[in-house]
Amino acid sequence: MASYHFLVQQLSGYFEGCEFLHVPRNDNEQANALARIGSTRQAIPAGIALQCLLKPSVKPSPESDSIFVPAPPEAVGSDLRTPAAGMGNSAGDPGTAAAAPGLGTSEPDPGTATVGPGTSWTKQAAADSDPLPPGPTALVQVAVLTVEEVAAPSWAQPILKFLVNKELPTNEISARQVQRRAAAYTIFNRELVRHSVTGVYQRCVEPEQGQAILKDIHQGECGHHAASRALVAKAFRHGFFWPTSLEDAKDLVQKCKGCQKFRSKPHQPASALKTIPIAWPFVIWGLDMSNGQVE
Q1: Residues 192/229, Cβ–Cβ less than 8 Å
Q2: Does the residue 45 lie in any domain?
Q3: 1-10: pLDDT as tens digits
Q4: Which of 192, 209, 212 lies closest to 201, judged by CA?
Q5: If we measure between CA atoms, which residue out of 202, 150, 146, 155 comes closest to residue 177?
Q6: pLDDT, tens digit, for every residue of 86-99?
Q7: Is residue 168 part of a domain?
């Protein structure tokens, strides 16, 4: 996938703009049907073409830092048996090396190899001290694993640990809560996201960052000083989520001077309402209901 991602990045550089849209699963029924046919080994219906890809259609690019490109077999170990510059094999023996004669030195004896002034040894001693193996160099396959850190806020660290390493808190109640909540979360583009009921992938953010988002929606350039629930709904539709969003929105609205100054005036009385007794109309008419006499 890293090779495909790097190829798309290269191709997008030839255009003035590039936009990536996420296709929900409900709108991708044809691709799901083809995937089910391939996974279950069912018979291919008429009208559907089949092409078997025996190798990847994209080759790893050496220009990408995140893609491991193995070296060709002929290049591995080629420098182990190659003599250095100014060094050569003596008398065709692969186990010895003779240095070029310098100024003021005589030609060395064919049976000896000269390394420095006043130092020499025979070919037999050089062959015994040769650290290189006599056989061909064996090719060793090395597996390279790239570990990428997933970005997640502090409140979502237990959920991230459960999704990645299946780690649960020691408390039984907290462990059950993490297991239940982790079903709505997934990792997308090295970030922890939440899959809402409306099909929108919401990026998990810190409460401080969420408060800044609410403030921008509430009293930014296009802010209309909406209520708390409208603020949270708009932030969720734009793809952000944090658990204390509603409490943060209520606190923001209560502390907003514009909302408190220009809010609608309540018309309720200052004191509590009192019920009118049943005999009150008769008192106004001058009737004494206690002894049945009319005044």
Answers
A1: no
A2: no
A3: 777 778 888 8
A4: 192
A5: 155
A6: 444 444 444 444 44
A7: yes
Give the end of a domain, one of 178, 204, 230. 204
Instruction: Specify whether 245 is located in the same domain as 199.
Output: no
The verdict on 213 and 193 lying in the same domain is no
Side-chain half-sphere exposure of 177, counting CA atoms within 13 A = 8
The verdict on residue 189 lying in a domain is yes
pLDDT of 121 above 60? no
Same-domain check for residues 200 and 218? no
**Are β-strands 119-122 and 240-241 bridged in parallel, bridged antiparallel, or unpaired?**
unpaired
Alpha-helical runs (H) found in the chain: 2-12, 29-40, 123-128, 157-165, 172-181, 207-219, 228-237, 245-255, 257-261, 280-285
Q: Indicate the residue type of 172.
A: E
244-252 LR contacts (CB < 8 Å, sep 24+): 244/207, 244/210, 245/210, 245/214, 248/207, 248/210, 248/211, 248/214, 249/214, 249/218, 252/211, 252/214, 252/215, 252/218, 252/228
Report residue 133 as tokens: 């193996």
Q: Using CA atoms, how far apart are residues 224 and 248, in angstroms rounded to an integer?
A: 17
- Domain residues for the domain of 213 are 205-264
Examine the domain organization and report whether 243 and 228 are in the same domain. Answer: yes
In terms of pTM, does the model score above 0.85? no
Identify the sign of the CA torsion 203, 205, 211, 215. Answer: negative
- Work out how many domains the chain is built from and give that number: 2
Q: Reduced to 3 states, what is the DSSP secondary structure of residue 188?
A: strand
Residue with tokens 């996201």: 193
User: Does the residue 237 lie in any domain?
Assistant: yes
Cα of 150 vs its chain's centroid, Å: 5
For residues 194 and 214, state if they share a domain. no
Residue 51 reports pLDDT greater than 50: yes
